[in-house]
Design brief:
With about 80 residues, the chain is mainly alpha-helical. The protein is about 60% helix and about 5% strand. Strands 1-2 form a two-stranded parallel sheet. The protein is elongated and about 60 Å long. It starts with 5 loop residues before the first strand and ends with a helix.
């Protein structure tokens, strides 16, 4: 969607979001105190647009249906080659 993302530093999320590159990551332990200031940071249009643009680029290049399909096809082809011998 091209929106700026705020996430927490937990498995999965921290594998996709790189802090201050394609989103903002906050520690779960301090979420209550850090979330309000982080939301205020996103009132900066330039920051919000940059993070949103990078988030969209990350998903499009890494998690697109075409990319995932190629990865699955590669897995199946590898298994077929292994068992054809």
């Amino acid at each position: 969607m091209g929106k700026a993302i705020i996430g927490t530093k937990v498995d999965g999320t921290s594998e996709v979001i790189r802090h201050n590159v394609n989103g903002l990551l906050l520690p779960v332990e301090t979420l209550d105190s850090t979330l309000p200031q982080t939301i205020i940071q996103l009132t900066d249009p330039a920051l919000r647009e940059r993070l949103g643009r990078e988030a969209r680029a990350t998903i499009s290049s890494t998690y697109s249906a075409a990319t995932m399909t190629r990865q699955i096809e590669g897995l199946y082809e590898g298994l077929l080659r292994k068992y054809e011998k």
